[in-house]
From TrEMBL:
This is Potassium transporter TrkA. It comes from Campylobacter taeniopygiae.
Length: 123
């Protein structure tokens, strides 16, 4: 299981962005699904994560090479994990959590990992 945000874990730099000009190559840019930002990130070979809000975004974000798909909604995360297993997604499915008290829940959802909400800068 991937665990992002724990002080003992080696972590990547996740940063929430709202504007296309905030994309940077020294971070994982996290944003809500936006094809203009996705296109720019792909053109510049940047790693990015999408906050998923519906089922279509799961399929599209993986197809457009998002490194991570981030979920707040547990039902949507569970659906995504089933889809990812069937289609062998390259994108990793992350459940956003408030703390690390119940990691077994992430296992039950069959997600690839968890990310602490407070770990995403500017979110």
């Amino acid at each position: 299981m991937l665990i992002f945000g724990h002080p003992l874990a080696k972590n990547l730099n996740f940063n929430f962005i709202e504007k296309i000009e905030n994309l940077q190559n020294d971070q994982i840019s996290c944003f809500f699904y936006d094809e203009k930002i996705i296109q720019k990130a792909k053109n510049e070979n940047l790693d990015f994560a999408i906050f998923i809000q519906n089922k279509n975004e799961i399929f599209l974000s993986n197809a457009f090479e998002a490194k991570f798909l981030i979920f707040k909604d547990e039902k949507l995360a569970k659906f995504a994990s089933k889809v990812a297993e069937f289609y062998l997604f390259d994108s990793k499915i992350l459940m956003m959590v408030e703390n690390f008290d119940d990691l077994e829940k992430a296992y039950d959802l069959r997600v690839d990992g968890v990310i602490l909400k407070d770990f995403i800068k500017n979110y």
